[in-house]
Amino acid sequence: MKYPNFKDLILFENDDYIVVNKPPFVASLDERGAAGAGEINILRLARQYTDDAQICHRLDKETSGAIVIAKNPEAYRNLSMQFEKRKVNKIYHAVVDGQFQFDNLFVDLPILNDGNKNVTIDRQEGKRAETFFTSLKYYKHYTLVECKPVTGRMHQIRIHLATQRAAICGDTMYRGKPVFLSKIKRGYRLTDEEEQPIMKRFALHAKQITFKGVDGQEIFVEAPYPKDFATLLKLLDKFDA
User: Fold this and answer.
1) 15 belongs to the catalytic site
2) Choice among 15, 30, 51, 60 that is catalytic
3) pTM of structure
4) Please, which residues have CB within 8 angstroms of residue 125's CB and are 6 or more apart in sequence?
5) DSSP 3-state assignment of 105?
6) 3 state DSSP class of 97
7) In whole angstroms, what is the distance from residue 236 CA to residue 229 CA?
8) Predicted confidence (pLDDT) per residue in 74-123, tens digit
9) In which region does residue 162 sit, left (phi positive, over 0), alpha (psi from -120 to 50) or beta (all else)?
């Protein structure tokens, strides 16, 4: 895998913060256990760029999009407090399997993270988790959905969508099926080779983030879709509209 040039990922930078557009398949932090040892991740790339870099929140490895890095301890504390008080505004885009008309649908289902990347809905033991969902665009077989998490639990958007039977495309952990061109393009001819999905990961992208800088000024950053997500939408526009 070709590692990204950190400077090319930067969407916003001031004296306190850097916001980058995280590519898919790059972890936010060192992953636990031997599997992640020695692997390039956003934190390592950021520390080569600025010594005191700290990641302020994380995105799943497959998720692309806006992630904030603090350049100094004061900036890190400032944003941590905003996350704690639910003052950070995050918007994600997801492509889900099926047609769904979500109009600011509020999902309030507690999530239990039993470590080991296993996440379940648990009304007794789970921690509070809240997300708003709004459908942005309808296709014949799919829907582009805006997701606004209020809390920041692991896999929150993914599992909350799955509870609505609207699994994210390609999210096999939550029964989401990948999108194949043969499903949407009429007369598509399969060759002898096994057909590859249009996107080789689940279709989730952290599109926008809004928070306050150390000086109290609002910082708003929008992350363009990466190539694979943009390609999926382009093909849906062309063949599944």
Assistant:
1) no
2) 60
3) 0.94
4) 110, 112
5) strand
6) strand
7) 11
8) 999 999 999 999 999 999 999 999 999 999 999 999 999 987 778 999 99
9) alpha
